[in-house]
Amino acid sequence: MYEVDTSKPVMVTGATGFVAGWLVKGLLESGATIHAPVRNPDNIDKLASLNKIAERTSGQIKLFKADLMTPGSYAEAMAGCGVVFHTASPFTTAVKDPQKELIEPAVEGTRNVLNTANATESVTRVVVTSSCAAIYTDAADCAAAPGGVLTEAVWNETASLDYQPYSYSKTLAEKAAWEIADAQSRWKLVTVNPCLVMGPAIGGVPTSESFNIMKQVGEGAFKRGAPRLGTGIVDVRDLAQAHMAAGFVPSAEGRHIIAGHNTDLFEVLSQLKDRFGASYAIPKSTLPKWLVWLAGPSVGMDRKFVSRNVNVRWEADNSKSKAALGMTYRSLKETMEDMFQQMIDAGAIKAA
Protein backbone atom coordinates (compact mmCIF):
# COMPACT_ATOMS: atom_id res chain seq x y z
CA MET A 1 0.00 0.00 0.00
CA TYR A 2 3.00 2.26 0.45
CA GLU A 3 6.72 2.36 -0.14
CA VAL A 4 9.20 3.84 2.32
CA ASP A 5 11.07 6.66 0.61
CA THR A 6 14.74 6.08 1.36
CA SER A 7 16.01 8.90 -0.84
CA LYS A 8 16.04 11.23 2.18
CA PRO A 9 16.70 10.51 5.86
CA VAL A 10 13.81 10.51 8.31
CA MET A 11 13.93 11.98 11.81
CA VAL A 12 12.44 10.23 14.83
CA THR A 13 12.16 12.02 18.16
CA GLY A 14 12.00 9.85 21.27
CA ALA A 15 13.73 7.06 19.34
CA THR A 16 14.58 5.13 22.53
CA GLY A 17 10.95 5.11 23.69
CA PHE A 18 8.46 2.23 23.86
CA VAL A 19 6.47 3.26 20.78
CA ALA A 20 9.40 4.56 18.72
CA GLY A 21 11.49 1.41 19.20
CA TRP A 22 9.28 -0.63 16.87
CA LEU A 23 8.96 2.29 14.44
CA VAL A 24 12.75 2.58 14.25
CA LYS A 25 13.00 -1.17 13.67
CA GLY A 26 10.51 -1.00 10.79
CA LEU A 27 12.25 1.97 9.20
CA LEU A 28 15.68 0.34 9.46
CA GLU A 29 14.39 -2.89 7.93
CA SER A 30 13.00 -0.80 5.05
CA GLY A 31 16.47 0.59 4.41
CA ALA A 32 15.88 4.08 5.75
CA THR A 33 18.52 6.33 7.25
CA ILE A 34 17.25 7.56 10.60
CA HIS A 35 18.32 10.74 12.30
CA ALA A 36 17.70 10.19 16.01
CA PRO A 37 17.94 13.28 18.22
CA VAL A 38 18.60 12.20 21.83
CA ARG A 39 19.48 14.01 25.00
CA ASN A 40 22.72 12.10 25.48
CA PRO A 41 24.24 10.42 22.38
CA ASP A 42 26.99 8.98 24.61
CA ASN A 43 24.55 6.86 26.65
CA ILE A 44 25.65 3.58 25.09
CA ASP A 45 23.43 1.35 27.24
CA LYS A 46 20.20 3.15 26.34
CA LEU A 47 21.03 3.13 22.63
CA ALA A 48 22.43 -0.41 22.44
CA SER A 49 19.22 -2.09 21.27
CA LEU A 50 18.73 0.36 18.40
CA ASN A 51 22.34 -0.01 17.29
CA LYS A 52 21.97 -3.81 17.30
CA ILE A 53 18.94 -3.55 15.00
CA ALA A 54 20.83 -1.23 12.67
CA GLU A 55 23.73 -3.68 12.47
CA ARG A 56 21.55 -6.44 11.00
CA THR A 57 19.43 -4.33 8.63
CA SER A 58 20.04 -2.36 5.45
CA GLY A 59 19.20 0.93 7.16
CA GLN A 60 21.36 3.06 9.40
CA ILE A 61 20.87 5.27 12.42
CA LYS A 62 22.69 8.52 13.15
CA LEU A 63 22.57 10.14 16.58
CA PHE A 64 22.30 13.86 17.28
CA LYS A 65 22.26 15.76 20.54
CA ALA A 66 19.00 17.62 21.13
CA ASP A 67 16.64 18.59 23.93
CA LEU A 68 12.85 18.69 23.64
CA MET A 69 12.60 21.97 25.53
CA THR A 70 15.36 23.87 23.73
CA PRO A 71 14.11 25.81 20.68
CA GLY A 72 16.12 25.10 17.56
CA SER A 73 17.95 22.12 19.02
CA TYR A 74 16.46 19.78 16.39
CA ALA A 75 17.75 21.78 13.43
CA GLU A 76 20.89 19.70 12.87
CA ALA A 77 19.08 16.37 13.16
CA MET A 78 16.26 17.48 10.86
CA ALA A 79 18.49 18.89 8.13
CA GLY A 80 17.90 17.03 4.86
CA CYS A 81 15.06 14.89 6.25
CA GLY A 82 11.87 14.33 4.27
CA VAL A 83 9.59 12.86 6.95
CA VAL A 84 9.66 13.75 10.64
CA PHE A 85 8.14 11.43 13.25
CA HIS A 86 7.54 13.23 16.55
CA THR A 87 6.92 10.52 19.16
CA ALA A 88 8.62 12.09 22.20
CA SER A 89 6.18 13.03 24.97
CA PRO A 90 5.91 12.12 28.66
CA PHE A 91 3.39 9.37 29.52
CA THR A 92 2.85 9.11 33.26
CA THR A 93 0.15 9.83 35.82
CA ALA A 94 2.53 10.02 38.81
CA VAL A 95 3.34 13.73 38.68
CA LYS A 96 3.69 16.42 41.32
CA ASP A 97 3.65 19.41 38.98
CA PRO A 98 1.54 18.61 35.89
CA GLN A 99 2.23 21.98 34.28
CA LYS A 100 6.00 21.47 34.38
CA GLU A 101 6.13 17.67 33.99
CA LEU A 102 3.37 17.14 31.39
CA ILE A 103 1.98 20.28 29.78
CA GLU A 104 5.20 22.12 29.03
CA PRO A 105 7.16 19.15 27.58
CA ALA A 106 4.19 18.05 25.45
CA VAL A 107 3.21 21.46 24.11
CA GLU A 108 6.55 23.25 23.90
CA GLY A 109 8.26 20.12 22.59
CA THR A 110 5.70 19.86 19.80
CA ARG A 111 6.08 23.53 18.93
CA ASN A 112 9.86 23.17 18.92
CA VAL A 113 9.79 20.26 16.47
CA LEU A 114 7.15 21.75 14.15
CA ASN A 115 8.70 25.23 14.12
CA THR A 116 11.95 23.56 13.09
CA ALA A 117 10.05 21.77 10.31
CA ASN A 118 8.89 25.19 9.13
CA ALA A 119 12.53 26.23 8.83
CA THR A 120 13.70 23.02 7.13
CA GLU A 121 13.00 23.07 3.38
CA SER A 122 13.48 19.32 2.88
CA VAL A 123 10.58 18.34 5.18
CA THR A 124 7.41 17.33 3.34
CA ARG A 125 5.50 15.54 6.11
CA VAL A 126 5.36 15.48 9.90
CA VAL A 127 3.74 12.59 11.78
CA VAL A 128 2.85 13.45 15.36
CA THR A 129 2.11 10.77 17.93
CA SER A 130 -0.95 12.22 19.59
CA SER A 131 -3.37 10.06 21.56
CA CYS A 132 -6.99 9.08 22.00
CA ALA A 133 -6.50 11.16 25.16
CA ALA A 134 -6.80 14.18 22.85
CA ILE A 135 -10.25 12.86 21.90
CA TYR A 136 -11.65 11.84 25.30
CA THR A 137 -10.84 11.85 29.03
CA ASP A 138 -13.14 9.18 30.46
CA ALA A 139 -15.05 6.25 29.01
CA ALA A 140 -18.20 8.19 29.92
CA ASP A 141 -17.25 10.70 27.22
CA CYS A 142 -18.02 8.03 24.61
CA ALA A 143 -21.72 8.29 25.37
CA ALA A 144 -21.57 12.04 24.73
CA ALA A 145 -19.95 11.53 21.31
CA PRO A 146 -22.17 11.43 18.20
CA GLY A 147 -23.76 7.99 18.08
CA GLY A 148 -22.01 7.08 21.34
CA VAL A 149 -18.75 6.35 19.50
CA LEU A 150 -15.47 8.29 19.47
CA THR A 151 -14.30 9.42 16.03
CA GLU A 152 -11.53 11.65 14.73
CA ALA A 153 -13.99 14.56 14.65
CA VAL A 154 -14.24 14.58 18.46
CA TRP A 155 -11.91 16.63 20.68
CA ASN A 156 -11.34 16.25 24.41
CA GLU A 157 -13.29 18.94 26.26
CA THR A 158 -13.34 17.45 29.78
CA ALA A 159 -9.69 17.18 30.87
CA SER A 160 -7.97 19.99 32.76
CA LEU A 161 -4.81 20.77 34.67
CA ASP A 162 -6.56 19.50 37.80
CA TYR A 163 -8.32 16.44 36.35
CA GLN A 164 -6.49 14.00 34.07
CA PRO A 165 -3.65 16.41 33.20
CA TYR A 166 -2.02 13.84 30.89
CA SER A 167 -5.09 13.90 28.65
CA TYR A 168 -5.07 17.68 28.86
CA SER A 169 -1.41 17.78 27.78
CA LYS A 170 -2.08 15.60 24.72
CA THR A 171 -5.06 17.74 23.74
CA LEU A 172 -3.11 21.00 23.99
CA ALA A 173 -0.11 19.53 22.17
CA GLU A 174 -2.14 18.25 19.22
CA LYS A 175 -4.05 21.52 18.93
CA ALA A 176 -0.73 23.37 18.89
CA ALA A 177 0.48 21.05 16.13
CA TRP A 178 -2.56 21.72 13.94
CA GLU A 179 -2.28 25.46 14.54
CA ILE A 180 1.30 25.48 13.25
CA ALA A 181 0.53 23.11 10.36
CA ASP A 182 -2.51 25.07 9.20
CA ALA A 183 -0.49 28.29 9.06
CA GLN A 184 1.74 26.95 6.24
CA SER A 185 1.38 24.85 3.08
CA ARG A 186 4.78 23.28 2.37
CA TRP A 187 4.54 20.17 4.57
CA LYS A 188 1.62 17.98 5.60
CA LEU A 189 0.73 17.05 9.18
CA VAL A 190 -0.68 13.59 9.93
CA THR A 191 -1.49 12.49 13.49
CA VAL A 192 -1.90 9.02 14.95
CA ASN A 193 -4.15 8.83 18.00
CA PRO A 194 -3.57 5.53 19.81
CA CYS A 195 -5.48 4.31 22.83
CA LEU A 196 -3.66 2.46 25.64
CA VAL A 197 -0.56 0.87 24.11
CA MET A 198 0.42 -2.63 25.20
CA GLY A 199 2.80 -5.30 23.91
CA PRO A 200 6.49 -6.21 24.15
CA ALA A 201 9.21 -3.57 24.15
CA ILE A 202 12.47 -3.38 22.26
CA GLY A 203 15.55 -3.03 24.43
CA GLY A 204 14.31 -3.90 27.91
CA VAL A 205 11.29 -2.81 29.91
CA PRO A 206 10.43 0.89 29.78
CA THR A 207 8.99 2.87 32.67
CA SER A 208 5.50 3.56 31.39
CA GLU A 209 1.98 3.14 32.74
CA SER A 210 1.41 0.10 30.51
CA PHE A 211 4.29 -1.79 32.09
CA ASN A 212 3.33 -0.66 35.58
CA ILE A 213 -0.03 -2.39 35.10
CA MET A 214 1.67 -5.62 34.04
CA LYS A 215 4.07 -5.43 36.96
CA GLN A 216 1.13 -5.11 39.34
CA VAL A 217 -0.45 -8.21 37.79
CA GLY A 218 2.78 -10.15 38.34
CA GLU A 219 2.91 -9.01 41.95
CA GLY A 220 -0.66 -10.18 42.61
CA ALA A 221 -2.33 -6.78 42.88
CA PHE A 222 -5.40 -8.11 41.03
CA LYS A 223 -5.68 -11.51 42.71
CA ARG A 224 -9.05 -10.57 44.21
CA GLY A 225 -10.31 -9.35 40.86
CA ALA A 226 -10.08 -6.48 38.40
CA PRO A 227 -12.55 -3.74 37.56
CA ARG A 228 -14.28 -3.50 34.23
CA LEU A 229 -12.58 -0.21 33.53
CA GLY A 230 -13.49 0.79 29.98
CA THR A 231 -10.53 1.37 27.68
CA GLY A 232 -9.15 0.79 24.22
CA ILE A 233 -6.03 -1.31 23.57
CA VAL A 234 -3.58 -1.32 20.68
CA ASP A 235 -0.47 -3.44 20.20
CA VAL A 236 2.73 -1.38 20.04
CA ARG A 237 3.79 -3.30 16.91
CA ASP A 238 0.54 -2.39 15.16
CA LEU A 239 1.01 1.22 16.26
CA ALA A 240 4.46 1.24 14.65
CA GLN A 241 2.87 0.11 11.39
CA ALA A 242 0.34 2.94 11.70
CA HIS A 243 3.20 5.42 12.00
CA MET A 244 4.92 4.00 8.93
CA ALA A 245 1.73 4.27 6.90
CA ALA A 246 1.04 7.78 8.19
CA GLY A 247 4.51 8.75 7.04
CA PHE A 248 4.48 7.21 3.58
CA VAL A 249 0.94 6.58 2.30
CA PRO A 250 0.64 9.50 -0.15
CA SER A 251 -3.03 10.17 0.58
CA ALA A 252 -2.77 9.97 4.39
CA GLU A 253 -4.20 13.07 6.06
CA GLY A 254 -5.68 14.31 9.32
CA ARG A 255 -6.18 12.34 12.53
CA HIS A 256 -6.36 8.55 12.87
CA ILE A 257 -7.75 6.61 15.83
CA ILE A 258 -5.42 3.62 16.32
CA ALA A 259 -7.37 1.15 18.45
CA GLY A 260 -7.35 -2.59 18.05
CA HIS A 261 -9.93 -3.42 20.71
CA ASN A 262 -12.80 -1.72 22.52
CA THR A 263 -12.52 -3.47 25.85
CA ASP A 264 -12.02 -3.14 29.62
CA LEU A 265 -9.28 -3.90 32.14
CA PHE A 266 -10.74 -7.21 33.35
CA GLU A 267 -11.07 -8.54 29.79
CA VAL A 268 -7.54 -7.37 28.99
CA LEU A 269 -5.96 -9.13 31.98
CA SER A 270 -8.09 -12.24 31.44
CA GLN A 271 -6.12 -12.87 28.24
CA LEU A 272 -3.23 -14.00 30.46
CA LYS A 273 -5.18 -16.71 32.26
CA ASP A 274 -4.67 -19.64 29.85
CA ARG A 275 -0.90 -19.32 29.64
CA PHE A 276 0.02 -17.84 33.03
CA GLY A 277 -2.93 -18.54 35.32
CA ALA A 278 -1.38 -21.61 36.93
CA SER A 279 1.65 -19.66 38.10
CA TYR A 280 0.45 -16.09 38.60
CA ALA A 281 -2.55 -14.48 40.29
CA ILE A 282 -4.37 -13.52 37.09
CA PRO A 283 -7.79 -12.05 38.00
CA LYS A 284 -10.65 -14.53 37.71
CA SER A 285 -13.49 -12.24 38.69
CA THR A 286 -14.59 -8.63 38.40
CA LEU A 287 -14.59 -6.16 41.25
CA PRO A 288 -17.90 -4.43 41.96
CA LYS A 289 -17.93 -0.72 41.17
CA TRP A 290 -18.93 0.26 44.71
CA LEU A 291 -15.86 -1.48 46.10
CA VAL A 292 -13.53 0.16 43.56
CA TRP A 293 -15.11 3.54 44.34
CA LEU A 294 -14.67 2.97 48.08
CA ALA A 295 -11.07 1.78 47.88
CA GLY A 296 -10.00 3.99 44.97
CA PRO A 297 -8.29 6.81 46.90
CA SER A 298 -6.18 4.34 48.91
CA VAL A 299 -4.59 3.10 45.65
CA GLY A 300 -4.34 6.50 44.01
CA MET A 301 -7.52 6.22 41.95
CA ASP A 302 -9.73 9.31 41.90
CA ARG A 303 -13.39 8.57 42.72
CA LYS A 304 -14.54 10.76 39.86
CA PHE A 305 -12.39 8.62 37.57
CA VAL A 306 -13.96 5.45 39.01
CA SER A 307 -17.46 6.81 38.48
CA ARG A 308 -16.78 7.76 34.87
CA ASN A 309 -14.79 4.70 33.78
CA VAL A 310 -15.63 1.56 35.77
CA ASN A 311 -18.50 -0.44 34.24
CA VAL A 312 -18.64 2.16 31.46
CA ARG A 313 -18.27 0.96 27.87
CA TRP A 314 -15.39 2.43 25.83
CA GLU A 315 -16.24 2.66 22.15
CA ALA A 316 -14.14 4.09 19.33
CA ASP A 317 -14.36 3.82 15.55
CA ASN A 318 -11.09 2.63 13.98
CA SER A 319 -12.46 2.38 10.44
CA LYS A 320 -10.46 5.35 9.14
CA SER A 321 -7.20 3.69 10.18
CA LYS A 322 -8.20 0.56 8.24
CA ALA A 323 -9.34 2.41 5.13
CA ALA A 324 -6.70 5.15 4.96
CA LEU A 325 -3.66 3.43 6.47
CA GLY A 326 -4.45 -0.20 5.64
CA MET A 327 -4.37 -1.17 9.30
CA THR A 328 -5.04 -4.67 10.59
CA TYR A 329 -4.89 -5.44 14.31
CA ARG A 330 -3.52 -8.54 16.02
CA SER A 331 -5.46 -10.35 18.73
CA LEU A 332 -5.63 -9.02 22.27
CA LYS A 333 -4.43 -12.40 23.54
CA GLU A 334 -1.25 -12.27 21.46
CA THR A 335 -0.50 -8.74 22.64
CA MET A 336 -0.92 -9.50 26.31
CA GLU A 337 0.86 -12.86 26.32
CA ASP A 338 3.85 -11.48 24.44
CA MET A 339 4.10 -8.50 26.79
CA PHE A 340 3.84 -10.53 30.00
CA GLN A 341 6.35 -13.13 28.80
CA GLN A 342 8.85 -10.47 27.81
CA MET A 343 8.62 -8.88 31.26
CA ILE A 344 9.25 -12.28 32.87
CA ASP A 345 12.24 -12.86 30.58
CA ALA A 346 13.61 -9.38 31.39
CA GLY A 347 13.25 -9.96 35.15
CA ALA A 348 10.66 -7.22 35.58
CA ILE A 349 8.20 -9.82 36.83
CA LYS A 350 9.55 -12.50 39.12
CA ALA A 351 9.40 -15.95 37.62
CA ALA A 352 6.86 -18.09 39.42
UniProtKB/TrEMBL annotation:
Family annotation (SUPFAM superfamilies): NAD(P)-binding Rossmann-fold domains
Keywords: Oxidoreductase
NAD-dependent epimerase/dehydratase domain sequence ranges: 10-246
Nucleus among keywords: no
Pfam families tied to this protein: Epimerase
Matches recorded under InterPro entries: Epimerase_deHydtase, NAD(P)-bd_dom_sf, NAD(P)_dehydrat-like
Domain of life: Bacteria
Keyword Oxidoreductase set for record: yes
Record-given protein name: NAD-dependent epimerase/dehydratase family protein
Record organism: Cognatishimia coralii
Lineage: Bacteria, Pseudomonadati, Pseudomonadota, Alphaproteobacteria, Rhodobacterales
